[in-house]
Amino acid sequence: MASIQGAKPPPLSPLPSQQSSSYRSTNQLRTPSNRKTIYDRNLNRTRTSELSRASFAYLFSEMVTYAQKRVTGIQDLERRLNEQGYPLGLRLLPLLLYREPPRTSFRPTRILPLLQFIHGQLWRHLFGRSADAIEHSSSANNEYMISDNEPLVNQYISVPKEMNQLNCAAFVAGVIEGVCDGCGMKAAVSAHNGGTEMWPGKTVFLIRFEPEVIQREGILEKGR
User: Fold this and answer.
1) Closest to 209 (Cα-Cα) out of 189, 223, 192
2) pTM
């Protein structure tokens, strides 16, 4: 009988699951073999995701119902909707700027670039399209208007006849106001019914900038 004392065991080959694994262990921390972790993933990969209209309609109707409690009138209800949208505008501003290309990812410092940012990037992020128009008031130097012919927030709201002056797009006005304040251009924004025969649901967002904003705009214009 042959002696097996001192014989060396054959080398063990790794299991198939070990051979095909794309992970390695370093100091008991499993990391991918390509050295990339979850923190290296592109944060923008879900920016084109859309929320279903049914979900939005239900969510927004609940927000209006909540804001409607203990209000004294239409203006009070619109004020509360505006206050609900304001923090969203403050938080959307840095997010949208982050998603811009590096050469354009700067905070607007002039009125016109700010209005173009709201008309374009902000509206596309919220509603999947740009707003319909930007106008400058001919009677007041500090007043600008952004128009939306079919505001999404009003499409699923049934307004009773006794409240026909109510415009639930006051929520969007609050978002605009938050973006303006986040850019250091304080303004008061309100939503107004501007329906026409072609666009009966048209809403005009009136943006009134504070006097110091207009004064700074004039100084910057002279310094060009």
Assistant:
1) 189
2) 0.76
pLDDT in tens, 65-96: 898 888 888 999 999 999 999 999 999 999 89
Q: Checking phi first, is residue 35 left (phi over 0); if not, alpha (psi -120 to 50) or beta?
A: left
Report the 3 state secondary structure along 74-127: HHHHHHHHHHHHHHHHHHHHHHHHHCCCCCCCCCCCCHHHHHHHHHHHHHHHHH
Q: Which element (helix H / strand E) includes 25?
A: strand 23-26
Which residue type does 2 have? A
Q: Hey, what are 132's tokens?
A: 């319909």
**Tokens 């198939």 correspond to what residue?**
16
List of residues 6+ apart from 18 with CB closer than 8 A = none
Torsion, CA 65, CA 154, CA 208, CA 146, rounded to 10: 160
